[in-house]
Structures
1.
Amino acid sequence: MIRKKNLLDHDQSLEQENSSLVKSLEANIEFFQKIFHDNETLIARKFQNKYLPEAKCCVLYFDGMVDTQKLNEKVIQPILNTNLNEGLSIQHLLEELEFKVIVSDKIKASNDLNEMMSSIMTGDTILLLQGFDKCLLISSKGGPTRAIVEPDSARVIRGPKEGFTESIITNLTLIRRKINNQNLKFKFRELGEITHTKICICYIEGLALEEIMAELEKRLDAIKIDAILDSGYIQELIRDAPFSPYETVGYSERPDAIAAKLLEGRIAIVVDGSPFVLTVPYVLAEAFQASEDYYNNFIFASFNRLLRSVGIFIATGLPAIYLAIVTYHQEMLPTPLLLSITSSRQGVPFPTALSLFLMLLVFDVIREAATRMPTPIGQAVNIVGTLVLGQAIVEAKIVSAPVIIITAFSGIMKLLSPTTLGSVIVLRLFFLIMASLMGIYGYIFGMIMATIHLMNVRSFGVPYMLGLTSFKNHNGQDIWIRAPWWSMTLRPKIIGVRNLVRQSTKIGKGSKMG
Amino acid sequence: MKSIKYLILSNMIFLNMFFLTGCWNYREVEKLAVVAGVAIDKGKNNQFIVTTEVIQISGGRESKTTSTYITMEGKSIFDAVRNQISFAGKKLYWSHTKVVIVSKEIARHNMLSVIDWYNRDSETRSDVNLLVSREKTAKKVLEQRALLEDINSFELADTLKNQISLSKAPIKELWGFINDLEAQGIVNIVPAVHLKKNKNMYSPQIMGAAVFDNAKLIGFLNSEETQEVLFVKDEVKGGLLIDRDKTNGLKAPISMEIFKNKTKIEPVVSRNNEIKFNIKVDTRVDIDEIVGNVKYANEKVLKKLSNNEAKNLKNRIEHCIKKVQSEYGVDIFGFGAKLREDNPKVWKKVASSWNDRFKNVSVNVSTKVNIKGSGLFSEPIKMGD
């Protein structure tokens, strides 16, 4: 409640002072300094023209937010050195400056305070001129940004190596460069009542479904939050099935992946300050797709994709199945395996269920620790983890060796598709509890419950299990395997229904023959 | 309101499907006393003596699997089995049991008293191998040390498994025994086991078969006869045919390895209701051992060899059938069952008197031996001197 009140106060103060620029330069500067009092990054640089001393100016900007070289050379220098006496109308000096003197790609005269505020705060420069109750907003965004590098979250061996950065404009540029089409649309809006974060809805007109677009805008409109610091905020605020462990909004750090999703009829949401671009609608099958799949040989890519999807089953199910068989259904084990498991369990004090819980926990502790640690310390954590897990704990007979193997196997498998990490950890624990209570029936029961849940989930009206439930028509082309490009002539159903044909050329057939 | 009631009801049924079918007993593997094999003998005062071979595992880096034997008496089999808890501590775990050895004495008396518990109990499995001991007690067979394996019962099971390349003993699992017991027109033969001295110690050898009349043991077949019976029953998948015939001009017998065998039994009912059986044996063999100067690459020679062997086999089978008919008088070949399959009307008439009819039923055996190869060589080894 308190926060809400503060927010309101802020807005009211702005309203009261609105459009209160006056003709005096000093008063105007003071006005801005009053608004930004105690903010010493505000720079007010006063100067005047060589030839026309009445043309007193002041540029206001925030230190570090602007490209100072550009400001010096294209704004201050022309105003200082141009002979303003010649052929310029003094009465309309502001317009004259705008049109004839200042070298800038984006410039606008304004007396709207809100506009001025958002401009200066995003790195533009305000030029005040003596005798005018208006100002010029000059685009001068600059300051430090991160270079375009290969994203850590999705590395590839084959394929484009650029990744999004924290700058929204850079990100949009990266997308634009992939899709040279006038139908690629960018719709901006601001979210976050304190942060005023820019976000951009990006879609291809004629491909993206209007219903989904309308739904997305409705959900974005409903957001009333103080701050958006990462696209993760929006992801959770607009998602379907808010309590599900499964992601219902996709994200990627790779422009090529986002471009591909736009081309399938999805809608992307780019958030300023976040290198992760969201896409809706999102279906489960996307968790197993990696952008490299589409650049590699389709057989190799299909193999990798099968590994990923099978990996999820093993990662979630293996501990539960092991527990069920070893503690409930010993008759299912081949005799030599039973004997070897029995021998490894000799003298181990904890029950299998408990040791599995413990070891899975330890694995996640090490994973979490290693993620947060700086790389050198992370390595130390890894060494300790491997030694403690792999050897000491077995030799000390705290847990049996098969449990370590199962944990390690499940742990590695779950890393095959990093986007599903959260749901895998939750599901694995759930299955394990079920299996420890009811044996293999518990696991099956858990699987059925998970499947029922998955069949219920929808992402922006699109069934979450799209494509996974049937192999009919072109549904299965890009799910468990990645079909060769020449055979993928259609876009995915439902999402790409507005323009289903992806390729109509018969290149594939021809080249197959030749 | 009513629909909600049905929803809840159907949900409860659905949930119970999972909860009630699930096993409730969580138990750790090391708490199990895994039974590898069991021997059943007759004790004093109509008691049963049950001996189990229980696997002992020592953990640690160099784990070792050994076994120990627990013998206990009881009024019934189950009683004896449960009595074992009184001094073995752990409850026996039967799912990995490989063999059940029954003593001659019990088999002669009534097999059912043994197999009923084993088949009925929920913890035992009916796919164990059944063996009849030719020794005095079954216990003696079970308690021998295994030759190559750690555990005697597992070695017995392996021996039975590899019988397919020997064909000198039938393979009978418990469920199969019960199947044949309940079926009409066929009686059981069960592999027989005895002890053989090998390097100062005795180890079990599986050879020959025990012949049952319903649930009672009535005699044994030796290994040769067993092979002949298996030929008729179409259960030969491997093994050897030895041609000892001296008329070939060979000094040593020829060994032929059987690769494939197909036997067809055809019941023929003539107009005056006389039942006859045509048995057609078709065997594919390979010469694997031959001594002497025979040019067997020659087609004529091969034909002679195969005809000779076919005649040999025919004689053996005919002799065997005669012997079974006269000596035991029970249908171990399953002629009756075959007749029932092919000609149920006739079977109905003769079913009640089948045992008597079997003794005199006439059989027409025709055999065919195809020699397909001669191992790695096509020529005999010549002495160069």
2.
Amino acid sequence: MLNYVARRLLLLVFILFGVALITFLLMHVVPGDHAQLVATYRYGFDDFSTDELKAVQEDIGADQPLHRQFILWLNHVLRGDLGYSFISGRPVTAEILARVPATLELATFSFLITVLIAFPLGIVSARRPYSWLDNIAMVSSLIGVAIPNFWLGLLLILVFSLTLGLLPVAGSGDLAHLILPSITLGSGMAAVSTRLIRASLLDVLEQDYIATARSKGLGEGVVFRRHALRNALIPVVTVLGLQLNHLIGGTVIIETVFARPGVGKLIVDAIQARDMPVLQGCVLFLALTFSMINLLVDISYAFLDPRIRYGGGQR
Amino acid sequence: MALLSIRNLEVYFPLPDGTVHVLDSIDLDLEDEEKLALIGETGSGKTVLGRAIVRLLPPGAHIHGEILYNKRNLLDLAPAEMRQIRGREIAIILQNPASSMNPVLTVGNQIKEAVQVRWGLTGRPAYRQVINLLERVGLPLRAAVGYPHQLSGGMRQRALVALGLALHPRLLIADEPTKGLDSPLRAQIVRLLKDVLEDGMSLFLITHDLPAARELAETVAVMYAGQIVEYGRADRIFAQPRHPYTLGLLASHPSRGLKAIPGIAPSLTNLPVGCRFHPRCADAREICRYKAPPFLEITKGHKVRCHHCSR
């Protein structure tokens, strides 16, 4: 198991290097000279001499060959220095870190909502397929999958904030501000997960080893918990991991709809203001988060499935 | 009264493109400590019959008739009552050892679970029992801490036998325990089963491994297209088979010349009228084409489902 984690961690180093390289190159393929952009922000539009531009180029290392620039940049990144925002002039690292808690809060809460809805509902549905409860769960999850989340967000604001006045419209701070965005983001994921959990369980319950477990005289509850659930979880964990990534992408929209000061909102603002260092920093940060989530998913696989833990072997 | 009496058992699966009649008018008795082999081609319904007895059929199966065990009809029992029968009274070793064990639990834990539920043992005594069982089936102790995918096919089969042994039932149903094994391994499993049965268990062996049936069974039931076509003492059936199908089945064995029965087994959705074997039968007459033969006793304890064998 430890061996497996070590192998995955080693692989992560290479992945992150690739991510850094792509992020770096991205900034160099966008239209416009990087040095010119910096100079514009430093001195104002067209308000700088050739000498000043040259000074900027030397300053940010734009006169160096590309590979030297990359090494220089990577060196800074590794020390946590992602450059300075064009707009605020503050370090990008500080800008991102200031926004992380709000996003983390939203992601955690949405994920919690997903798990709290999807697992009980999926399990109940699988234990009594085609019962009225299952039918209700399946119809509502179909609706949940179909509704786009920005629209659901606006609808929830309209009902709970504007009409009923129960919850705040936008912003962040206490728990009340979290409820609507979390439901908006979590419900769609919960819908997909419920269906998956149900399907996965129903599939596992037809396997031969479940019949073996029943043939021992075990009760249905034990068969379900000990034999079915863990096997059914393997595909579910994959999709939950993918969805968690999707959810982090989803914060970009939801944070904009609910005006929450998170990383997603920071990205949108950075794009609109062409604040390249911030955008670059955010992309790198998200890529790092995705990689970490994928690592966690891979580790939990190994935890759930000994066939992965011990690799190869006879099948 | 026999330990197990199956009366007029019928199992079918209604499917969109026609009903699949898997079992039809099955009548079978099994005495206490009797060893019976159910033989027949793949797809004749042997496995379904074995699983019907412990009521472990896939969802969607319709089942009619009676399965009397100790005078109680198993088909009438509530799920909780059936659980008392499973494992304690009747255990089943399913076919396909590769898929019949839970891939995410160690072999030892799966056997231990059987020991726990059957004998109420936990902790050290339970482990000791698991170790005993593994020794008995000739598995190394390290197999206990391994997962099913880490064992070879033969080891998995033995692990499944150990599971059946752990339950020490009165009736053991073994579905193709020698399937897919090479001959030394097959001999090993047969010897193992024989050894186990010394304890006075009844055996319901489902197989198309005729030598294994011969070695283990006292009585033989031959199945064709969902019906039992011949039943009797093993020595009589192997020496003097009466039903043309049994004759063909025995002749198709390599040791007896590898002669194939002409034609193919009928589809269970579209069974022939009359005798189900008549399209492949060399002795078929007019009556065989329209009238289903009754299952008649021709000599004491020897029953045949054939129009012209019963006289």
